[in-house]
Specification:
The structure is a homodimer of 316-residue chains. Chain A is α/β, with parallel strands linked by helices and 316 residues long. The first copy, chain A, is built from 11 helices and 13 strands. In chain A, a hairpin with a 3-residue loop joins strand 9 (130-135) and strand 10. The two termini of chain A are 17 Å apart.
Chain lengths: 316, 316
């Protein structure tokens, strides 16, 4: 018997077939084609499922399907209430898939599901209270409390990119000002670097950003750091400070056993950034709370989502 | 049969006798006399308990004792790990009282216990996910998650006064900078008002603060507001803004069903401050999270602690 775990993103869908020992036996990857509308997305999801069903030797061999989806998810109903990256609103994805394949489906918020992956199969095994902080284009997170993913009252808990670190600070994509995401995400870093270039400062990031069409890559940051590029060092220091303040705020409120840092930026630069972030966090966190908390880098990388989805499918 | 609920503070101890319908039948109040040391505090606690036992007609009529205590509390052990206002460190208060009276004792953090009071008997009846925010000399809070008080991994969860609202902001009593408490507590307000007086600005707070020996009272703020004192209006606006940013951060992370505002400042000025705080919160919170959250003023006032302690004693 097998389970299917899926990570449905705004640009790609990852799918995996898990055997009964929670090992990945097959992987499938497809474009989401979100810009082509709802029917196309469902057709892409279906292709991923069907490929995996075939590899499993038929749908009678699939015990369940789990999927992470960006947005506010009502897990009980299996409904995508709202998604920032997909054209779904009050869309019952669970029912749609179940109707078509007669296999039990469980869906959850993609970042939350990633945290579940790290908690059950990665950096957080055995812990009961965890905060996951994912640093990439945006900043997302998830919270495990009393040995259970905490969803909040409408499935929107864990929006840790939107804690306010600076009232009257820069505008955030969410419309508010001074959110952690507006100060420490790759989007925020890009803005800072471009502003410095605009001010006539020299940086090796200028050519690199041109090459990548203005999209800042974590590897570019790593390169800038290695070459001791002044502006890269500056932006990394600033970001670490804001991340430290945010981390301190979160642990002061939630007093977790562990904080897991993940996402593209951490995958590329975790070893450099973590000590900085933690040193700033130490300045702001309550001493006993900081001392009692373990800080780890995520271990599953891009697979966190499909592993978390496996856990949803198993239904623990 | 009766229960005893106690609220053990840095300056006073409140005790109450509850009958089986959760009604208060007797009240006792004594000074804590914390400055006279551990033995004196225990003796004061004992007097409160003994008075209530007597009113109950003997200790065989007491089913349990609950108490809220300031500091980090290990509820399972009944140990005060650390208290900012009382000279206790790794002190097992539960065992001490149980040894002396042979009545089951349960203790918890005072602010958390106050939130439990509001949740079970006050503003939050029937809710499963609540954040309580108490604004007074400091800013404290507590979190109810999935129908249970959330304590955190070492019993220190809910330190919402110490979320960082302003990196490099003013120093806080905790040693960090820019904490909500350093910006929006009565202590912070006092500093702001004194600084304005120092700068030669006129305010009716000057005489009032002299009269109260520099201790800012919530009623003074109310008076200043009613008389349209410029500096009072200024400080209330600033405080509302910081509280709004803090509230937004908290609900974005925890997506609660309800936020309960309490504490001295809110008791005196809640009707004036709440609309301001919520209007600022609305600017920073995720729209759907804000819309789905109910905001209420605490209903039990100073009794929240003893009611919460009753709940500990009942052991739900």
């Amino acid at each position: 018997m097998y389970y299917i775990g899926m990570d449905i993103g705004g640009t790609k869908i990852l799918g995996a077939l898990f055997d009964e020992e929670n090992k990945i036996t097959e992987r499938v990857k497809r474009k989401t084609k979100a810009e082509e509308g709802k029917d196309m997305i469902f057709s892409q999801i279906s292709k991923v499922i069907e490929e995996l069903i075939e590899k499993a030797g038929g749908k009678e061999n699939i015990k369940g399907i789990g999927a992470g989806v960006p947005g506010i998810i009502n897990m009980e109903k299996g409904e995508v209430v709202f998604s920032p990256n997909l054209p779904w609103k009050n869309y019952n994805l669970k029912e749609e898939i179940e109707k078509k394949y007669e296999i039990k489906v469980t869906i959850g918020n993609d970042v939350n599901v990633g945290i579940v992956g790290e908690w059950k199969y990665g950096a957080g095994i055995g812990k009961k209270n965890i905060i996951g902080i994912f640093m990439g284009t945006g900043i997302g997170g998830g919270i495990v409390i009393n040995d259970k993913l905490y969803e909040g009252s409408i499935g929107a808990a864990g929006e840790i990119g939107h804690i306010c670190i600076m009232p009257d600070g820069p505008y955030c994509g969410c419309g508010a000002r001074g959110c952690l995401e507006a100060l420490a995400s790759k989007t925020a870093m890009t803005k800072y670097i471009l502003a410095q270039i605009e001010r006539g400062r020299k940086t090796i990031m200028e050519d690199m950003l041109k090459e990548s069409k203005g999209v800042l890559k974590s590897e570019q940051l790593q390169k800038g750091y290695e070459e001791k590029d002044e502006i890269t060092l500056e932006v990394l220091e600033k970001v670490s400070k804001y991340m430290g303040a945010g981390t301190a705020s979160l642990i002061n409120v939630l007093n977790p056993e562990m904080v897991i840092f993940g996402g593209g930026v951490i995958e590329a630069m975790g070893k450099i950034l973590m000590p900085k972030i933690l040193s700033y966090a130490k300045e702001n966190a309550m001493v006993k709370i900081m001392e009692s908390c373990e800080f780890k880098i995520a271990e599953l990388g891009d697979d966190a989502g499909i592993y978390g989805a496996l856990n949803l499918a198993i239904g623990e």
